[in-house]
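[worker-b] picked up task from shared queue
[worker-b] task type: protein-ligand structure
[worker-b] ligand name resolved to pyridoxal-5'-phosphate; SMILES cross-checked against name lookup, match
[worker-b] sequence length check passed
[worker-b] input payload:
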Amino acid sequence: MTTNAVEFERAQHVLVGGVNSAVRAFRAVGGQPRFIASADGAYMTDVEGQRYVDYLGSWGPMIVGHSHPLVLERVREAAGRGLSYGAPNVMETELAERIVALFPQVERVRFTSSGTEAAMSALRLARGATGRTKIIKFEGCYHGTADSLLVKAGSGMLAFGTPSSAGVPADLAQHTLVAQYNDLESVRSLFLAHPEEIACLMVEPIPGNMNLVRPATGFLEGLRELCTEFGTLLIFDEVMSGFRVALGGAQEWCGVQPDVSAFGKVIGGGMPVGAIGGPASVMDKMAPLGNVYQAGTLSGNPIAMAAGLATLELISEPGFFDRLSARCGVLIKGLNEAAKAAGVAFTAHHIGGMAGMVFSEHSPASYADVLAQDTTRFKAFFHAMLDRGVYFPPSAVEAFFFSSAHGEAEITYTLEQAKAAFQSLH
Ligand SMILES: *Cc1c(COP(=O)(O)O)cnc(C)c1O
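[worker-b] inference finished, payload out:
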C-alpha cells in the first residue's frame, strides 16, 4: 500500500506544489496533505486506509454526503447516454427550471463549468449591461480567480484596488474598488466618489471565504438601496451560500433580492458546475441574444446536470433544511461547550449547513475579526482533529460544511475527539 507522504512526493514532480487548487497543499496549517482514495456518506478515506468524518464536503457541494445512491444512479444513467454533446440537452432546461422556481428574481439561467466562470461572466454581463467599468467588492470575500476579482484594498479609504496576485495588471485592478464587509459607510463613500461609474457590486451575502461571517442587521438591505440609488447591479455570489444556508440561498434567508446571482458548488452535486441567474432584461444582454460574449464547451454538461438535478431533488424534500440545520446546531453547541470546558477561547456558529469556527471569544463580524483570531491554536486543533479522524478545512479563514449524511454517530464521535483536542491545546 502507498502512503500520503509517498504520493505527495510523487505529485510534486508533476503537479505544481503537488495539487490542483492551492489550499489543498496544507500550507496554511503545515503538515502532510491526505490523498483521498474514496468517499462515502459523511466519510472520506485516504490512501493509507485512514477514515475521516468529513467537514470539508469538497468545500461545499456535498450537502447530501458523498456517493449518495440517487446521485450516483442518475450519473451512471446519464453516462450511459454519452458524456458531452456540445449541443443542447433537456437536463439543462430542467435544472434551470428548478432554479427559476426557487429564486424570485431569476428568469433566465446560463450554466458554466465553475463558480469562477460564473462570477467572471456575471462581471462582464454587468459591465456590458450598464456600459460602466468599475466594480465594488469586499475585502475577504472570494469570488474565484478572475483577474478583476483578485484584488485587495489599496492604502487609504478611497484608493483604487491593487492586485492580490502577481499577473493581474494594475490597470485592471484599479477598476475594482474594495469596501469593508458589514461597513455600509465604506460602500457609500465609494459610490459617492464614483457616482456614475460603478457597474456592479459583488458580494457573498453570507461570506464563507473569510470564515463564516453574519451580515449585520440592515447591511444587505443597505447594499440593495445604494445599488438601486446609483443604478448599479447588485450581484449576490451565492456559489457557496446557495442551496446551503437555505433551499433559496442567502437571499431567501435574508429576504433581500439581488439583480443577478452566481451559483456553483451544490448545484453541481460534486460535478463541475456554475451558473448565473437573473431577470430576462439583464440576462438577455448575453450572447446569442445580446452582445456580451459568453460560452463554454462543457457548459450544461449532461453528467453534471444529472448530478445537480438529483442533488436538488434530495434537498427539496420537505423539512430537509430544518433537519440539516438542527443537527448542525447540535454539533456547534457541542463544540462550543467542549471548548468552554477546556478553557479555550473559541466560538463556532452556523447558518443552515454552513458553519464556522474561530479561536476567539466572539464570532467574527468583520474580516479584521477573522484575522485577529489565534491561528496557532487553530493549526494545533486542526491537526489534533485530523489525527483523530476528523477532517476540517485546512485553513482558519474558511467555513466548514455539514451534510445530511452526518448523523448522531458522526456528531458524537466528532465531539468526543474535540474534547480531547481542546484539552491538548494547553
Ligand atoms: C468557491 C467559490 C467560488 C469559486 O468557485 P469555483 O468552482 O472554485 O471556481 C466563487 N465564489 C464563492 C463565494 C465561492 O465560495
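[worker-b] attaching auto-annotations
[worker-b] The chain is about 35% helix and 15% strand.
[worker-b] releasing lock
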